[in-house]
């Protein structure tokens, strides 16, 4: 995370990106393989001088100035300006929104926001369910009774019967 403005921040980003490109091809190497995509993702605690008002995500790409068409789709910059992110907890829609909200408000939060905690619980519930299915398959293979498999895994018997080894 870049906490403070730096006079040559963009130059530094170009430098880091160019080094990542340069490492892909050995000296004297032949261009037999295409380059992999290279992107700089900068999480910043300041605003860029020419930022659009109300925009916190700058998506920078190589464009043809005359046609405004994308020139190359495997190189780019994503600048996230935390001071420009002003969504309230009620306005959070995407995972990125939730992540940025927590990062921006981490010093003020005393607990995980309700909407975000709900997603965490749902993830744990889904993980338990997947583990239950894995266990049920193993027990079914060992010919354990459906009633016991259901008790152990919490899965309903009709669902266990449909499982394939």
Task: Describe the protein.
It is a single chain. The longest helix is centred in the last third of the chain and has 28 residues, at about 115-140. The chain has a three-stranded mixed β-sheet with strand order 1-3-2, with helices on one face. Helix 3 runs antiparallel to helix 4. The mean pLDDT is about 85. It is flat. Helices cover about 40% and strands about 15% of the residues. The two termini are about 45 Å apart. By secondary structure, the chain is of the alpha+beta class. The chain has helices at about 10-20, 95-105, 115-140, 145-155, 155-160; strands at about 40-45, 55-65, 70-80. Among the domains are: about 10-25 and about 35-85, no CATH class; about 115-160, no CATH class.
Summarize the structure.
This protein is of the alpha+beta class and 165 residues long. Helices cover 41% and strands 16% of the residues.
């Amino acid at each position: 995370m870049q906490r403070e403005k730096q006079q040559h921040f963009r130059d530094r980003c170009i430098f880091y990106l160019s080094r990542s490109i340069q490492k892909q091809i050995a000296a004297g190497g032949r261009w037999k393989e295409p380059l992999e995509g290279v992107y700089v993702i900068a999480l910043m605690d300041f605003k860029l001088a020419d930022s659009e008002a109300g925009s916190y995500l700058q998506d920078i790409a190589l464009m043809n100035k005359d046609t405004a068409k994308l020139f190359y789709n495997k190189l780019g910059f994503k600048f996230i300006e935390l001071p420009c992110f002003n969504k309230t907890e009620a306005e959070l829609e995407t995972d990125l929104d939730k992540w940025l909200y927590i990062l921006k408000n981490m010093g003020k939060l005393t607990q995980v926001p309700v909407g975000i905690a709900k997603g965490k619980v749902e993830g744990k519930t889904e993980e338990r369910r997947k583990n239950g299915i894995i266990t049920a398959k193993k027990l079914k293979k060992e010919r354990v009774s459906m009633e016991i498999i259901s008790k152990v895994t919490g899965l309903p018997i009709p669902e266990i019967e449909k499982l394939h080894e």
